[in-house]
Structure formats: structure tokens, C-alpha cells
Write a structure and sequence with these properties.
By secondary structure, the chain is mainly beta. The strands form 10 sheets. Strands 29, 32, 37, 38, 39, 40 and 42 form a 7-stranded antiparallel sheet that branches. Strands 12, 13, 14, 15 and 16 form a 5-stranded antiparallel sheet that branches.
Length: 576
């Protein structure tokens, strides 16, 4: 069924409330998909009647034959009455057998040692991130699963031996999708050193490799070993971040393995393996193609290889350091390039892929599926899980950034001093079809594009009192304000946004997520050194911002253009 906006909006495919719902109980996590040999999508999700980590949390599966519009065959992989089962990922072999790998508290351990504080008496009763890593399999395209579960032996690394149980009980979990490699499969797994502040820390990434999964039909005879070798996983300098987790992997065209993972530095980190996973390069912050550090909080950041050999990267484009700030979700494109060490990935500047009107909603744990030339993303905000079709043009624009896209032209109105300002419809109107005339949010957007000179001061304005728009340049900062008489929104960059001299600027006012973005000299402003956020929200109840009939344009603003829609970031870059 369609997830309905509680306060109806003009349709926007990026609004997660306009997605198609995945049936879950209450809590939901990791709605991941593989396409079965009969063409159906098989999805697994961790769900439960309570909150995350509570007793009764378990893995379920389901099937869809219409790209997630409806789901059938909703069944338990593990029953809710069993000990906690969690964080399932899928892998399909060439024969069509589907494996479901997941955490399982098979010993029904009810508490484990943790730090005091924050856990009273030095124990935590949340036990979904320890125990056994197991699998079941399906030979009927996800309609049923093996009655028995099979244990994967876990090698004790240094981090395990140093935990409170000396490795006899292992702390771990996984959200990364398995991937084929040289005829076998790698299944990601993240080891946990301690439970404490932020639930877990001293984390690192590993890979479990099975060479004979494509040839051995007896699940008891599958062979497993742990990578990288040497007893240590993949992690950033622990003096910088004691969190290195939720690694996501892809295989490049030269057989190199690339991974990216979350930290608490405000940036994702990445590493490459050139020897089949035996070792990885020293992790470093992930960067855009121009060398700037990508910003990202303590949230899943995933990379997917698409059927065309290019890549998509999911993240949150802000420099916060904790679990929050996962709305909106952004996508970058990536393409391969050569380096002395082997193939590397170059990352485009990002676009908003999905958002929720409530900025506190946390969108995460996505999967990307291609079907008949279309791109779909599943996601969860820990309660509702849904499927969304992503606009092909948005995705193709990301790759075009990296492939020398030609300067483009779009319909606009040129504005000079004293010209009549185009009318901007109200962002919010009264819904007169409702008896209480509640607010109806309208996806009204516009874009302003112009050049600025070195001179500081007001660039242009229609402001009269506390209504209208105004843009200013001062001491290296760019600011844009707009108001409707009740609300006044201002977004100001840091002082490192504008160097001395002239600049090309695009201001995008996106009425879907209610966000203002700046593209400066063809670069999306990301907050720089001074700000965690390069973008800013405006009040969802803002109505009309029309004020002075004629716009005042000052000498330090040149070639002002007004677009009656929000240009994409890729489009704005092409104007520079």
C-alpha cells in the first residue's frame, strides 16, 4: 500500500511517505533484496513487536513479483518465540539457492558484560549483537527456508580475545551485503570490542569467505575462513575514532576490493584490498573527486555496483558524529579511474535521493535493486520500511558530472535591476477540502543563478519588512534569506565559502524537503570547516514570500536568472 503523507503534499517521489510499504511488525531494519531465479524479489527484514534489540526481534522474509508494490509469502526465517535473530543479509548462488545470513542468540544468553556506566551493574540485557553467526537457505525462491540453521565458525581476532569473555562469547553484527569473488562469496561481519557509550565501540570490519558455496550442496561441508589475515580487521586510527563499522564492499573491474565504513569523525573512511581481501590499505577519509572530504555521521553509508559498471553511494552529507541526522539521504555517483596501485573510485557531488518532512526521522539501511532499466531503493526509518523508485535522470546526472557533461541551458527568466519579480506560489496553503482547513504542503521550488563580483554587500532583494528574499555577500560569507511575514529563514555559509574575487553562484530552494542549497563555482557547499551542514531547512509552514513587485539588483550581482523549479545539483554544476 502507498504510505500516505499525514498532511498531503504535492507528489514527490523523494518523499519516503510516498513509497510503497513493506509489511513489518513494529520495529524494522535492513530490508534487503535479491532477485530469485523465477524473477521475484525475495526480501528479508529484521522486525519485532517492540523496540530495537528487545526480546522477540526476529528475521522474516517475503516475495514480490511487481517490484515491491505488493508482498506475498510473508514467513518467519526464525520465529519471534525463539531467541533473538537479527540483521539478515541475502546471497543467491548461480544455481538459484538463496542463503540468509544473520545474527542468532542461539544460546539464549540473556545478558552480557558491558561498561558501568552507562549500563547499571556492568551488564546489558540487549543481546542481539552477540552469539552465533548462522545461515539458512531456500531452494524454492524464498517461499520456504531450511528447518535447520547452520553455524559459521568465527575466528578469534585480537579484538575478540580482549573482550570480557576472552573471545568465548563474541560480540558482532552485520549490515553489509555479501558479494561474489573468484567463484566464492565474502560475507561482511563487524567485530565489537566493548558494549558501552553508544552501545558499542572498539569496532572493526572483517570478511567471512566461503570458496565452495557455488559447488557444494551439503551446507555442513561449506568451508569458512576470516579476512583480512593477521588477526586484525579493517579500522581507522583508534586515536581518531574508536568506531569503525558497517563496512560496505564492492569489487572493482581489476578485482580490487573497495570498502567504505562509518566512524565518529564526521567523515566516512575507505580502504582498498589488492590481494583478494588478505590485507587492506590504511583506511583514510573518503573524498569527492576534487579531494574534499565527504561528510557523514555515525550512520550506514553503502556503495553498490550497478549493471553498467558504475557505482552509487548512499550517505547523509553532514559532519555530525553520532547516530542522528539521517534525513535527507543523499546519493553520489562513482566511476573507476586508474592509479599506480590499481583501480580507484572517483565520487561525484551528491543529490537528495530521499527525505521525510519530519527532520527527526532517521532514514537508513537501504538496498539498491535494478529491474528493467529502473533503479529502486529500499529503506527503513526503524519503524516503516518501504520501496522507492529513484528517478533515472537524477542518477544519470551524477555519473555525467564525472564524465565531462557539457554546459547546459534550461528555461529561465533573466532579471536586472527594476524588473518585475516572478511570482512564487505559496509553499503551504489551507486545504479547503478539509473541515478544519489544515495545512497542505505544496512542492514549490525555484532556483536563482548569478555571478558576484569581489564587492561585499547586498546582492539583490525583494524584501519589504519581513517578507521577500534577499541575498548578501560579506567577509567571505554568502547568505540567503526569505520570509512570508510570519517566518524568516536565513542560511549563511562559513567564511571559507567565498575567496576574494568573483564567483558563480546557484541558490536552490527545494520545496520538497524544504531545503536551501548553495552551489558555488560548480561545487555544492557542504559547510566547509565551520559548519556541519552546508544546506539549511526552512519552516514547513512558510506560505508566500512575494513582497516588492520589482527586484532590486545591485552592481555586485551580474547575470541574475530565475528558474521556476529546483535545479538538480548536477544541473547547477553544468551552469558554472
Amino acid at each position: 500500500t502507498m504510505m500516505k503523507h499525514t498532511q498531503d503534499a504535492s507528489y514527490d517521489a523523494r518523499n519516503i511517505q510516498n513509497g510503497t510499504r513493506i509489511p513489518v511488525e513494529y520495529y524494522s531494519d535492513q530490508p534487503y533484496v535479491v532477485e530469485a531465479n523465477d524473477g521475484a524479489w525475495v526480501l528479508v527484514v529484521t522486525t519485532g513487536a517492540g523496540m530495537e534489540g528487545e526480546k522477540g526481534q526476529h528475521v522474516i522474509s517475503m516475495r514480490s513479483t511487481n517490484c515491491g508494490k505488493t508482498w506475498t509469502d510473508v514467513i518467519d526465517v526464525e520465529k519471534a518465540s525463539n531467541p533473538e535473530s537479527s540483521y539478515a543479509v541475502l546471497y543467491k548462488t548461480q544455481s538459484g539457492r538463496i542463503f540468509c545470513f544473520y545474527n542468532y542468540n542461539a544460546d539464549n544468553t540473556r545478558s552480557v558484560t558491558a561498561d558501568d556506566p552507562p549500563f547499571e551493574n556492568g551488564v546489558t540485557t540487549r543481546v542481539d549483537s552477540q552469539g552465533h553467526f548462522v545461515f539458512k537457505f531456500s531452494d524454492d525462491c524464498g517461499k520456504s527456508w531450511s528447518e535447520k540453521w547452520y553455524d559459521i565458525p568465527l575466528e578469534s581476532y585480537q579484538i575478540d580475545l580482549a573482550n570480557p569473555y576472552g573471545g568465548k562469547i563474541k560480540y558482532f553484527w552485520n549490515v553489509g551485503k555479501p558479494f561474489s569473488y573468484n567463484g566464492g562469496v565474502f560475507v561482511p561481519q563487524y567485530k565489537v570490542g566493548r558494549f558501552g557509550d553508544g552501545f558499542m565501540y572498539n569496532t572493526e570490519g572483517t570478511l567471512l569467505f566461503c570458496q565452495n558455496i557455488e559447488t557444494e550442496t551439503d551446507p555442513e561441508k561449506l568451508t569458512w575462513e576470516t579476512f583480512p589475515k593477521g588477526g586484525e580487521g579493517i579500522y581507522a586510527d583508534r586515536n581518531i575514532s574508536n568506531v569503525s563499522e558497517e563496512h560496505s564492499f564492492v569489487v572493482l573491474s581489476d578485482n580490487s576490493i573497495f570498502c567504505t565504513f562509518r566512524t565518529v569523525t564526521g567523515h566516512p573512511y575507505c580502504a582498498y584490498s589488492r590481494d583478494g581481501g588478505k590485507s587492506f590499505s590504511q583506511p583514510k577519509p573518503l573524498t569527492y573527486a576534487d579531494g574534499r572530504y565527504i561528510k557523514h555521521p555515525r550512520a550506514a553509508n553503502f556503495i553498490w555496483k550497478c549493471q553498467n559498471g558504475k557505482y552509487l553511494y548512499w550517505f547523509h552529507n553532514n559532519g555530525c558524529r553520532w547516530y542522528e541526522e539521517r534525513n535527507p539521504a543523499w546519493l553520489c555517483g562513482a566511476v573507476e579511474a586508474d592509479s599506480p596501485e590499481g583501480k580507484i573510485l572517483l565520487f561525484s557531488q551528491p543529490e537528495i535521493a530521499l527525505y521525510d518532512p519530519d527532520i527527526n526521522i532517521r532514514i537508513s539501511y537501504p538496498d539498491c535493486i535494478e529491474k528493467d532499466g529502473a533503479y529502486y531503493i529500499t529503506e527503513t526509518q526503524k519503524r516503516d520500511a518501504a520501496v522507492h523508485r529513484i528517478d533515472n535522470a537524477l542518477i544519470e546526472g551524477l555519473w555525467a558530472q564525472l564524465e565531462g557533461a557539457k554546459r547546459a541551458s534550461y528555461d529561465f527568466t533573466a532579471l536586472k535591476d527594476g524588473d518585475e519579480m516572478p511570482n512564487v506560489p505559496h509553499f503551504t496553503v489551507k486545504d479547503l477540502d478539509e473541515v478544519d482547513s489544515r495545512s497542505k504542503f505544496v512542492n514549490v521550488s525555484f532556483t536563482l543563478d548569478f555571478d558576484v563580483t569581489a564587492q561585499d554587500g547586498t546582492l539583490f532583494t525583494t524584501a519589504e519588512g519581513d517578507k521577500g528574499i534577499v541575498a548578501k555577500k560579506q567577509n567571505g560569507k554568502l547568505s540567503f534569506s526569505m520570509g512570508d511575514g510570519k517566518f524568516w529563514c536565513t542560511k549563511i555559509t562559513g567564511a571559507d565559502a567565498l575567496s576574494d574575487g568573483s564567483h558563480h553562484i546557484t541558490i536552490i530552494v527545494d520545496g520538497g524537503p524544504r531545503i536551501v542549497m548553495f552551489v558555488i563555482d560548480g561545487v555544492l557547499w557542504d559547510g566547509g570547516r565551520e559548519q556541519d551542514f552546508g544546506f539549511g531547512w526552512f519552516n514547513q509552514y512558510m506560505t508566500g514570500i512575494n513582497a516588492a513587485k520589482d527586484i532590486k539588483v545591485f552592481d555586485n550581482a551580474k547575470n541574475l536568472k530565475f528558474y521556476r523549479r529546483a535545479l538538480t545539483v548536477s544541473e547547477a554544476i553544468s551552469l558554472a
